[in-house]
Specification:
Elements (H helix, E strand, L loop, with lengths): L16 H21 L24 E5 L5 E3 L11 H14 L5 E5 L5 H13 L5 E3 L5
Parallel strand pairs: 1-3, 3-4
Antiparallel strand pairs: 1-2
Helix pairs in contact: 2-3
């Protein structure tokens, strides 16, 4: 008994299932890494209408933050999400100002932060030699 071979026609359709799998994997990777790309501390900025400040791309500003609980943060170096004491923050700002004296210093104050915490930060910045301080807000 001989078996007959069945000849199949060549398949002319593209199998898209592997491409869908790759796309879904990339989607998951981007969904996981997107929140990590956001810089700084999560701060609810107050809303106001004002003209945007022109920032030089060659020299990024030094941003210091106050969260809703009154903790201070400096976006300097690797420990950006680590709260700092006001004295340590002042020392770090002085170090940056000694290296680049014309760096722009901006304050991100949470909308729910106490007035005293923000004013205390601005006073510490003045002690560190920063005379011009910019406040970061959101447009309504």
């Amino acid at each position: 008994m001989e078996m007959q071979r069945v000849r199949r026609k060549p398949m002319s359709e593209i199998n898209v299932v592997p491409y869908i799998d790759v796309m879904l994997v990339l989607l998951v990777i981007f969904m996981v890494t997107a929140p990590m790309l956001m810089q700084g501390i999560d701060v609810d900025l107050p809303e106001t209408t004002s003209d945007p400040l022109q920032v030089s791309p060659e020299q990024p500003p030094l941003i210091v933050s106050v969260d809703a609980f009154g903790a201070y943060y400096a976006e300097i170096g690797e420990d950006r999400s680590k709260p700092l004491e006001l004295g340590e923050l002042t020392r770090r700002v002085q170090t940056v100002r000694n290296q680049t004296p014309d760096v722009l210093v901006l304050v991100r104050g949470d909308e729910k932060a106490s007035y005293g915490a923000v004013v205390g930060l601005m006073g510490a910045l003045k002690e560190a030699g920063v005379l011009d301080v910019g406040l970061i807000t959101e447009t309504p």
